[in-house]
């Protein structure tokens, strides 16, 4: 176990995306993110101003989603969502590709859309969600290559709303597909510290999860127990 709690915290995007969440739920989620000093929160687009206000003065970034969860919004809408989110203070944008276009073989259209979102995001990092549950390995590779050519900062497995989420096989494939300048984010069904640590061994550097406190508290307990055994 080579990571400290603080190091693992900075690999986590604390997810606050469930459709039924109230404004107080969003504030409570931001409080958890601030307590553990995670990398970012990932909130619904309507919640960006709330999260920015709640996290002002912390080192936790505010991220949001674009074209979520199905990726079927017209490109102009995805661009407008991105521009508004950045104007409101979002520093990271997790966009869903047009899955149907990719499955239809329209890779150039997918790449062009990603590029337009990247341009609209400016200095904000764009993470491209592939929604791997619906793709063949060949389509996953094509999407990763398109995302890198378009200037994305990350490729990401899933929204968390598809039938399956992140898998070790998909993460290994995605890591092999992109150069070191593009990071890999695992999201969807990651609920334990052991799963997170196993994925770091593949080169995954960011994790979307809602069980942040459970995972980081587990790591803290293990490190105390290890220290006590060594004493």
Describe the structure.
This protein is an alpha/beta fold. The chain is built from 10 helices and 8 strands. The chain has helices at residues 5-9, 23-36, 48-55, 75-87, 99-103, 107-121, 137-149, 168-177, 193-200, 212-230, and strands spanning 12-16, 40-43, 61-66, 92-96, 125-129, 154-156, 183-187, 206-209. It has an 8-stranded parallel beta barrel with strand order 1-2-3-4-5-6-7-8, surrounded by 6 helices. Strand 1 (12-16), helix 2 and strand 2 form a beta-alpha-beta unit. Helix 2 runs parallel beside helix 3 and helix 4 (75-87) runs parallel beside helix 6. The longest helix is centred in the last third of the chain and has 19 residues, at 212-230. It is globular, with a radius of gyration of 17 Å. The mean pLDDT is 97.
For the record, the count of structural domains works out to 1
Number of helices: 10
Overall 3D shape: globular
- Please state the second-level CATH architecture: Alpha-Beta Barrel
CATH topology title: TIM Barrel
Assign a percent range to the helix content.
40-55%
Structural class: alpha/beta
Residue share in β-strands: 15-25%
Mean residue pLDDT: 97
Order of strands across the main sheet: 1-2-3-4-5-6-7-8
Q: Whole-Å distance between the termini? A: 17 Å
Uncertain spans, ≥5 residues at pLDDT below 50?
A: none
What is the C-alpha radius of gyration, as a whole number of Å? 17 Å
Considering the protein shown, what is the CATH homologous superfamily?
Answer: Aldolase class I
Tally the beta strands.
8
The biggest beta sheet reads: 8 strands, parallel, barrel
């Amino acid at each position: 176990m080579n990571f400290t709690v603080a190091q693992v915290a900075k690999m986590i995007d604390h997810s606050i995306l469930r459709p039924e969440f109230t404004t107080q739920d969003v504030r409570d989620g931001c409080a958890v993110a601030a307590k553990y000093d995670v990398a970012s929160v990932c909130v619904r687009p309507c919640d960006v101003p709330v999260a920015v206000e709640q996290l002002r003065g912390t080192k936790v970034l505010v991220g949001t989603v674009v074209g979520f969860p199905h990726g079927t919004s017209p490109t102009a809408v995805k661009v407008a969502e991105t521009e508004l989110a950045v104007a409101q203070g979002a520093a990271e944008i997790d966009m869903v590709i047009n899955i149907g276009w990719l499955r239809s073989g329209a890779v150039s259209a997918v790449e062009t859309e990603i590029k337009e979102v990247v341009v609209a995001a400016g200095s904000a990092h764009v993470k491209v969600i592939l929604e791997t549950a619906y793709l063949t390995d060949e389509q996953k590779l094509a999407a990763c290559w398109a995302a890198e050519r378009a200037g994305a900062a990350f490729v990401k497995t899933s929204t968390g709303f598809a039938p399956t989420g992140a898998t070790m096989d998909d993460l290994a494939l995605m890591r092999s597909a992109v150069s070191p300048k593009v990071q890999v984010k695992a999201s969807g069904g990651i609920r334990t510290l052991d799963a997170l640590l196993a994925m770091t061994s593949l080169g995954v550097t960011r994790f979307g999860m809602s069980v942040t406190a459970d995972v980081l508290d587990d790591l803290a307990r293990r490190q105390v127990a290890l220290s006590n055994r060594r004493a």
